[in-house]
Amino acid sequence: PGGGKMPMKILQNCTNCGICEILCPYNAIYPGGVNWRKIHNRYFIFCDEELIHDVFWSPDHYYVVSDKCTECIGKYPEPICKTACTKDAIVIDTEHRESEEHLIAKKEYLETMLGMP
Are 38 and 22 in contact (CB under 8 A)? Predict the structure, then answer.
């Protein structure tokens, strides 16, 4: 079965500096090994070693939760995580490109959620 869409992905050469997590406007980036789950369309970090991980989860380095990644459309000229990454470890996942319309709709949806900029 195919996984979810992944507009951005973080590669193995990530050094876990954390700048991407800090800069991400939609809190779409999580540290490697951190488990998370979705409840009522909100994401929470939690600890459950029995969790079945999504395709984008990584035990070793930061990862992007695709449902929350908008590629920074309408916010920055290009994804801020990619701009800030000094190791060129963040790339657009060309196998899972999303349409501009879908990214804009996702951005607008995320911005209606409480606590979003």
Answer: no
